[in-house]
Amino acid sequence: VQADGTDGNCVTFVLHDEDHTLGNSLRYMVMKNPDVEFCGYCITHPSESKINFRIQTRGSLPAIEPFRKGLNDLMGVCQHVLNTFEVRLFPEELKD
Amino acid sequence: LPRPASLTPRLPPPRSRAPRPSASSQVHTTDFPGNYPGYDDAWDQLRFEEGFRVDVVREEEDTLEFDMVGIDAAIANAFRRILLAEVPTMAVEKVFVYNNTSIVQDEILAHRLGLIPIRADPRLFEYRNQGDEEGTEIDTLQFQLKIKCSRNPQAAKESSDPNELYINHKVYSKHMTWVPLGNQPDLFPDAGFRPVHDDILIAQLRPGQEIDVLMHCVKGIGKDHAKFSPVATASYRLLPDITLLQPIEDEAAELLQKCFSPGVIEVQNIKGKKVARVANARLDTFSREVFRHESLKNLVRLARVRNHYIFSVESTGILPPDVLVSEAIKILMGKCQRFLNELDSVPME
Lengths: 96, 349
Hints:
The structure holds two protein chains of two kinds.
Chain A: E1 2-5, E2 10-16, H1 20-31, E3 36-43, E4 50-57, H2 64-89, H3 91-94
Helix pairs in contact in A: 1-2
Chain B: E1 17-19, H1 45-51, E2 53-59, E3 63-69, H2 73-85, E4 89-100, H3 106-115, E5 118-119, E6 141-148, E7 150-151, H4 162-165, E8 166-167, E9 170-172, E10 176-179, H5 184-187, E11 194-195, E12 201-204, E13 210-220, E14 231-244, H6 250-259, E15 265-270, E16 273-278, E17 300-315, H7 321-345
Antiparallel strand pairs in B: 1-17, 2-3, 3-17, 4-13, 5-11, 6-10, 6-13, 7-8, 9-12, 14-17, 15-16
Helix pairs in contact in B: 2-7
């Protein structure tokens, strides 16, 4: 992870060893944050596996906060999906 | 389509249906905060949990079909991509050829051996360190394939059937035997690592030819090489949504039924008249045949429910498909956790 930007409000994170899998889902979670004015990601070159992930916030919130919140929200989503899925698939184990 | 900023808040489509034929107009999700005044679209975990559900439609030994409702395309696609490319498995990586006098070249043989799915739970093993040539017992599985073809002395004189004339002339995956390394016999006493299928034809031999190779299996992911992909395929589609804009009767109803896949449209007899009704939109394969008929073109609206994903996961047999999906979700969580840890440990300037 490398950060680079003009001031704390708009930051471009360079995420190594990542692609659309995390990029798109993280972008979705960060966009759901009402404090975020702009969020996008791009893959600099298809041969290199790294993405530029840019967040710009409205007002004075440092851009790292929506990034952290987006990651936490995505974790929450995955956890809930996992729980729901396992409950649905392995109901026998829960009876113990 | 503009969002209905009208009287009834949050009423169904347009924002939950993606219409066709103008398919390109509403492909991306637009329910982000600030896009539509009066609607609160900020992320709310509770609202997500209320709206989310998983239904298992069909579960067989190697295939799993399940529905995920209430999730967004970005995340559903992330799961699909992880299932294809990032769930690890064990596969043959290095082949030490001691003797290969068969017609199959060394590298072709090695390539074929690599593609054979190995029944070994990858969670029991570690990744091999880069630059480590030898391989330790915690990251490597060793297999041996040693087979020699010979002439069958009991064959009839005039027979031309290779099955009768030669012994061991077809090399199958069942001829691969596990050679335990180090303390593997103690760690895995009942494992019996072997290829998933016994009847994969690896090579064909004639008398006098033999193959003697030693194989090392390592743990890898599909991104590195497709042989490590644990799924035959993993795909999803959106639930179709067929709406009849006007009541359709008699011959038009029969014609409508023929336009769609069987079971989608059902023609009922109401008061002597045949009336068409959408019975099960899920079965439709969206051939859009209905748009070829002038009389029916404007009476039907074909769309998809935007947040209802019908996943179909087909495993190669290494791990059962439900375990694969759980692993995929855990891998996505692991990715997030990795960046959270980095954020916390490295001070940002």
